[in-house]
Amino acid sequence: MAVLMWLRHRGWLTSGYMLPLSAVMALPFYYVLVNTLKTQQQTAASPLGLPTSPDFSSYRRVLDQVPVAAAFANTAYVTVVSVALMVLIGAMAAYALMMRPTRFNKRFGKLLLIAFVIPTQSTLIPVYQLFVHLGLVDSLNGLVLVYSAGSIFCWFIIQGYMATLPFEIIEAARIDGCGPWMIFWRIVLPLIRPILVTVAVFQTMWIWNDFFTPNVYLSDPAKSTIVLEVYTSVGQFQVDWPAFLTLSVMALVPMVVFFLAVQRHIMSGLLSGAVKG
Questions:
Q1: How far apart are CA 274 and CA 268, in angstroms?
Q2: What is the pLDDT of residues 176-224, one digit of tens each?
Q3: Environment class of 246 (CB within 10 Å of its CB; exposed 0-12, middle 13-18, buried 19+)
Q4: How far apart are CA 93 and CA 77, in angstroms?
Q5: Contact, 185 vs 230, CB < 8 A?
Q6: Is 120 left (phi over 0), alpha (psi -120 to 50) or beta?
Q7: Measured between alpha carbons, how far is 69 from 75 in angstroms, rounded to an integer?
Q8: Please, what sign has the CA dihedral across residues 178, 84, 136, 140?
Q9: Which of 78, 53, 92, 74 is nearest to 184 (CA)?
Q10: What pTM did the predictor assign?
């Protein structure tokens, strides 16, 4: 009885500090959303107050003046292609190093770990100069190539999960005459699907919300991503806050919906790796 009372009391304590913390975390989202339904004057007069009457003019103005559809299309293209390349390259690298655990491969794995911890900013200038010579600056495909360097992160996560696979299944497939490619596509990939989904979700959220890389490598307004459109909506001397916040909401909503739709896959992938490890 005492244990039940203690657990119930502990639950109330947890709720007591989690609810205020949640409210604090939700305040910026409330601020952004509520000010998209106000005029510039209402936003300046009462930033946290509710609108007297919802005003959707900022949404119409943004859709009329900003190439939102093109920005979403550019962002979706870069995100989908980059994530597909990163996950595929990372899985193939992890598979190759697992299948051939030679001394060279072990050293190569350590080299990849060193590359994993090198800050992106330290290699920005030489990589940019290389892309200038290759004609890949101000190109969506060049941006995809830049993001493909995230394959190292994918490899790092996938190889830990892949090491927990029952090697007897692979040996049985070899005995049955399966080659390395068939083993990879038919056996290994289905077994590591939870961690592939988890890695893909993290990389998708990173690329969609990334500002630094597109800002460096893209200059053509027709190739801007949605985050760049949010940035360029800020004037030098004056900011149309309702329009700026409206565009921010448009950029944020797809990732919120995406995260809510796949969060159970994230948890299943992380928990599967924890249990197997």
A1: 10
A2: 888 888 888 888 888 888 889 889 998 999 999 999 999 999 989 899 9
A3: buried
A4: 24
A5: no
A6: alpha
A7: 10
A8: positive
A9: 92
A10: 0.82
